[in-house]
From TrEMBL:
Residues 2-117 form the CENP-V/GFA domain. Signal peptide: none annotated. Keywords: Lyase, Metal-binding, Zinc. The keyword Lyase applies. GO terms for molecular function: carbon-sulfur lyase activity; metal ion binding. Belongs to the Gfa family. PROSITE patterns: CENP_V_GFA (PS51891). This is Aldehyde-activating protein.
Amino acid sequence: MIKGSCCCGTVKFELLKQPSMMGTCHCSRCRKVGASTIVFVKKEDLKWVEGKEHVKMFQPEEPYKYERSFCTICGTSLGEILSDMDSFPIAANTLDSGLEIKNSFHEFVDEKPDWYEICDDAKQSKGHPDT
Ligand SMILES: [Zn+2]
Ligand SMILES: [Zn+2]
């Protein structure tokens, strides 16, 4: 069981299984919302404990297509935690438990600021890893 929460503790959830994958996105969008490192979770493995009603989802403006959700009390970025997809990314920052996986890719590395140096051997790509 993996526990996750926002900074103020209003939002609490659990993951019944380990996330399938961890990656880091260096695009300006992910950087600004503070959710660069994400883990992919299956919808069926996400169990809400409390605070779901305090999560607000923002739709992206063109050309961006990924929604973002936040705790409306403290602003913690929660990734796509309200998604209806079978599998979706949530911000790794929100997890309170240790994980068995490590970062396995860096995407949008061409948008990475110079002050951030990649210090692991994970695969790098300019866009999404599968493009
Ligand atoms: Zn909060
Ligand atoms: Zn991104």
